Amino acid sequence: MKKNKPKYKQIIDAAVVVIAENGYHASQVSKIAKKAGVADGTIYLYFKNKEDILVSVFEEKMGQFIEEIEKGISDKQTANDKLLTLIMLHFRQLADNHHLATVTQLELRQSDPQLRLKINKVLKPYLLVIDSIIKEGIEGSSFRDNLNTQLVRQMIFGTLDETVTNWVMKERKYDLVAQAEDVHALLINGLSVS
Amino acid sequence: MKKNKPKYKQIIDAAVVVIAENGYHASQVSKIAKKAGVADGTIYLYFKNKEDILVSVFEEKMGQFIEEIEKGISDKQTANDKLLTLIMLHFRQLADNHHLATVTQLELRQSDPQLRLKINKVLKPYLLVIDSIIKEGIEGSSFRDNLNTQLVRQMIFGTLDETVTNWVMKERKYDLVAQAEDVHALLINGLSVS
Amino acid sequence: MKKNKPKYKQIIDAAVVVIAENGYHASQVSKIAKKAGVADGTIYLYFKNKEDILVSVFEEKMGQFIEEIEKGISDKQTANDKLLTLIMLHFRQLADNHHLATVTQLELRQSDPQLRLKINKVLKPYLLVIDSIIKEGIEGSSFRDNLNTQLVRQMIFGTLDETVTNWVMKERKYDLVAQAEDVHALLINGLSVS
Amino acid sequence: MKKNKPKYKQIIDAAVVVIAENGYHASQVSKIAKKAGVADGTIYLYFKNKEDILVSVFEEKMGQFIEEIEKGISDKQTANDKLLTLIMLHFRQLADNHHLATVTQLELRQSDPQLRLKINKVLKPYLLVIDSIIKEGIEGSSFRDNLNTQLVRQMIFGTLDETVTNWVMKERKYDLVAQAEDVHALLINGLSVS
DNA sequence: TATGAATGAGGATTCATTCAT
DNA sequence: TATGAATGAATCCTCATTCAT
């Protein structure tokens, strides 16, 4: 399995840094190879093409990202707690790895729609985690029972994504994780008074 | 004023269609010129460069987009009604012009961060409209008074944006406008039961 | 006759200044038109094409240049005096009009060989003036009688040209006209001692 | 060292021929690549850009040119002999390689002043060789001791350059090398009788 | 004569990918 | 496995010239 060889990981890690530092368009394969300490041609022993590097970066990093979140919510008892934990871990992980944050929130969006489809596939498990929390909330009667799961998922993910993107675009000048509780309250209670 | 000349509008409209059909990267200037029925060089009498076409597309279309929404909410009495109207018009306008929807939700995101900054500037007035609704809601006591306006704006915009993007990515197979009321209810009431 | 109309001269004079200031390649027809205070299209009522402007500039300016020299040497009695006068006037005229000097010594050399042929045709009368001085010098026994006129002409013109070019390239930091007598002495006496 | 690799020399030689045959402006990089038998992109592994090809052509060829002359004059005893040898070798080398002659006398002059500066730098060693002959001539009392070295150098170089240019422009219809002795005599003795 | 908006041909350069070693 | 020299496709923009007014 190629994914366990050291050079595979070297290249993935080099790619995250190179893309974050140089931006998507200025991240030539040769630059990634240099950062990874391998020859240009070696890249193609581990990845089909440049797009495959990007998708793999996302797969690897999002895999860990989601795993971390799944682990974090597993011992929470209520949907409410799980949602709060998900938000906190979502924010914390990106706050802790700002290279990755830049890549996921800005640089990877520059890829073409075809690549975006693949990226969405990688994102799917995360959306399923969100769905499961929604379902649990409804069944446990902490959430209303007339909720449209798809819409709710879009609200949750859209809100988190927009919040992180704003934070990255404003050059991470404030504490992202500190906003987790407020975001959670907002999603739970909505805007209305009562 | 160049913006009122017919060729300016021809080129803008051609650009929307060409970008929607071919994608951002495959939209050569020559292709846009051909679609617009002008010579390649003519483009440069109206636009500084290729990027300027894209920014201008966004300016023109978002200008109309926002104007439409401002007009629509102007005769609504409550923040609640205004928010619902904003959501409906946001969805309706993109549903009615799916070329534009594709461009704003997918293709334009491929632009580099520098261009994104310009696009964000164009988006600013829209965010201000959202802010004014939030403020009105708080002052009119329909919304809670401890809301963080920035977070609320991110929730509203993030939710709408994610909802439209999903609809575009799923090839517009369902009725976007029909979801407006549910999205509105979700934002107003949140997830919780009471 | 177009050449006597005011706009013809306006365009010629504008061209000299524009080429001297911007260099040959950056001297667009539109820039010359603007400087001359006419529309782009008007240029083509007076000149066949851009090359024709350049050739005409040279014709006009060299015509005056040569005329001035012919006038200056007409009342000199000896070939020696005539040669000295030619050198002085050659240097003086270019020193007095540094725009023209820049154009003739640097910018016009960038033209393609085909254009250079036309320019050489304009230069012909000047070379004939030099030839006539040589002939007079030989017949009057001030110059040796075994001189090859073509070579002598090349030496005289080559020396003057190289001297002016050097002066222009060194940004005209020294007095060109002051070198006339030394150059003359050099051409007359050569390098040898006796 | 790239300059010793075979492709470097292939490209240089191809460039000389392509420029001589097509002229400076019609010498596209792709044409040079084709003539050299390499891909367009390969050019850029050896040269920074198109201008760099031209400067390198001049460097390579002038390097050999000057070396040849320095070698030729090294065993001549007098300044007179050295000057004659320099003239003969100058003429001979360009007569023997008429592609190079066309490039140096006509095509390369079309370059813009910025490039001309670089070319002048390459020419500098040649001018120094001329200067050293002048100095030797003065010190050895074969040349007058009141000579202005700069002017003499300009006379010598200007005369040789103009002579070669004329020969090229007259399509090399006569024997250039045969004129070396006459040119030499002219420079040594000047025009005057005694 | 004069205008100036419109035309459209033309070329240097980058960089993902290959393949002989 | 690993290398890195070589490949070659692909595109934005300028500007001399035209022509309807």
Automatic annotation (TrEMBL), chains A, B, C, D:
HTH tetR-type domain mapped to chain residues: 5-65
UniProt KW DNA-binding keyword: yes
Record keywords: DNA-binding, Repressor
UniProt xrefs under SUPFAM superfamilies: Homeodomain-like (SSF46689), Tetracyclin repressor-like, C-terminal domain (SSF48498)
Organism classification: Bacteria, Bacillati, Bacillota, Bacilli, Bacillales
InterPro entries xrefs: Homeodomain-like_sf, HTH-type_Tx_Regulator, HTH_TetR, Tet_transcr_reg_TetR-rel_C_sf, Tscrpt_reg_YsiA_C
Binding region for DNA: 28-47
PANTHER family linked to this entry: ACREF/ENVCD OPERON REPRESSOR-RELATED (PTHR43479), ACREF_ENVCD OPERON REPRESSOR-RELATED (PTHR43479:SF11)
UniProt keyword annotation of Repressor present: yes
Superkingdom per UniProt: Bacteria
Protein name, as recorded: TetR family transcriptional regulator
Molecular function terms, GO-annotated: DNA binding
Organism: Virgibacillus halodenitrificans
